[in-house]
Amino acid sequence: xxxxxxxxxxxLSGIGYLFKGMKLLSHPKLRFFILIPFTINVVxxxxxxxxxxxxxxxxxxxxxxxxxDFLSWLYYILWPFLMLSILFSFSFLFSxxxxxxxxxxxxxxxxxxxxxxxxxxxxxxxxSELLKDLPRIFKRELQKLAYFLPRxxxxxxxxxxxxxxxxxxxxxxxxxxxxxxxxxxxxFPFDNHKIPFKSMKSALSKRLGKxxxxxxxxxxxxxxxxxxxxxxxxxxxxxxxxxVDIYKHELINDGKxxxxx
Length: 261
Fold this sequence. Notes:
Elements: H1 14-25, H2 31-53, H3 56-64, H4 75-118, H5 127-132, H6 134-158, H7 164-192, H8 197-205, H9 208-221, H10 227-253
């Protein structure tokens, strides 16, 4: 029996797909393919958060000290948002690094998850073919970085604009990182079907609410110690379930014409 039958209803929000990802994570057929992404995540996040939590309080106090005296009352409002912004920044940065390193294995996990949900083989490729496909996979990761970095720089610069930038930047950053996480993880099942990056972004934007809630929750969970060790494979499985429920039908079965890169 296809595993999809156990997960028939589509969640109302992107958060529901993380719960789907958690359910899929425990499936025996996926455990082997989760092992390598999990190990990469543990090594990178353990190192990153050791450095982060040894410095975060000093960074926040120094940043708030630059506010004018007449805005000193914002301290207790900005403090939690700044902490979250720093956590999300580091989480996004190291999640991007982890995903870049683990991209071939995340793509393989997305492929096996889709096969589990649909009982349909995507590719006949084994590990030897995966090795041959590495240049294309890493080219796609570089394409994502080229999309992320200018927007990342713009949001970061907002933090240095006195008063206005200092107050709105944390909120803008929260939304930005949510979108980036949605793009990051949705791309694995899309790329398995050779769907162009631009077409993938367009498809995600049509369900912006679901994708933002998915990405924001992933961002939040990457800041939670120990949970951040397993969030990568959960997000890959959840994004693949999202693909199977919605995008596979729209972009593949309906024969929609995809624009070429």
